[in-house]
TrEMBL record:
Pfam family for this entry, one: DPBB_1
Recorded family membership: Belongs to the RlpA family.
Annotated InterPro entries: RlpA (IPR034718), RlpA-like_DPBB (IPR009009), RlpA-like_sf (IPR036908), RplA (IPR012997), SPOR-like_dom (IPR007730), SPOR-like_sf (IPR036680)
The protein's name in its UniProt record: Endolytic peptidoglycan transglycosylase RlpA
A GO term from the CC aspect: cell outer membrane
Residue ranges occupied by any SPOR domain in the UniProt entry: 203-279
One GO-annotated biological process of the protein: peptidoglycan metabolic process
Entry superkingdom: Bacteria
Main location: membrane
Keyword Lipoprotein belongs to the record: yes
Keyword terms: Cell membrane, Cell wall biogenesis/degradation, Lipoprotein, Lyase, Membrane, Palmitate, Signal
EC number: 4.2.2.-
Known function: Lytic transglycosylase with a strong preference for naked glycan strands that lack stem peptides.
Amino acid sequence: MNSIQKIAALILLSSIIVGCSSSPSEPEKTPTTPPLSQSDRYQEERYDIKNDVAPDQPMSVEHIEEAIPQYEAYSLGGNKNYTVRGQRYQIIKDPKGFKEKGQASWYGKKFHGHLTSNGEVYDMYSMSAAHKQLPLPSYVKVTNTDNGKSTVVRVNDRGPFHPGRIIDLSFAAATKLDVIKTGTANVEIEVITVEKPTSQVKKQALPQFQIQVASSQHKDRVETLAQDLGQKLSVASYVNSEDNIHRVILGPFDDYALTQKTLEQVKLLGYSSAFVRKN
């Protein structure tokens, strides 16, 4: 094939691609809705599930504690001003004292296992949330003003991009606030700011966290698992036995960010019911 034929073939291929991207099956957009950017289109097409749903057989979230506020440096990713559907969003530089009222929604199975805006793995059973402008990560107290229930979540993602909605809760957080039942709820959110510890603060004064991976009545299996995970993840591990129930425990950790990172690794290894508990 000579050069002219190659160029002609490329032009023909380009016209086919353009034709596919604007096929009649694509939902029509109203004149007031900006066309999807390449980034927006990627976000819509990257997930296996078209519409978000709850897990098929959700596990109980009663044992999952609310997020424990701790000082964390802001992430390298997810903290730049950005544009979605033609709307420009500016990250709040100083969120201390920030409060907001509006509607909360939730997100679950569609996004489970995918990366959040700051590069973490989204886990619908974690006490996390998404906000359009708060720096990542941030800790927020969320109060469902429809029923008075409240909890604390760790914001590590962006969204929701629907009018009137101010926060997207994880499946676990939404369940605790009874937002799952209604789909959305009226909420008030308040940022919880934790100052950076000074060098004079002793390590012993920092909060301690543990990860409970699994429990069983078979002590030998639990001991083998604890040893295996300790070696794979390079963390301390041990078995806690009580009332003939043997639990695999990792830690303790005095860094909440490291605890969450380790929890993500544990879940990627297949232990989806693992959770963080305070020592």
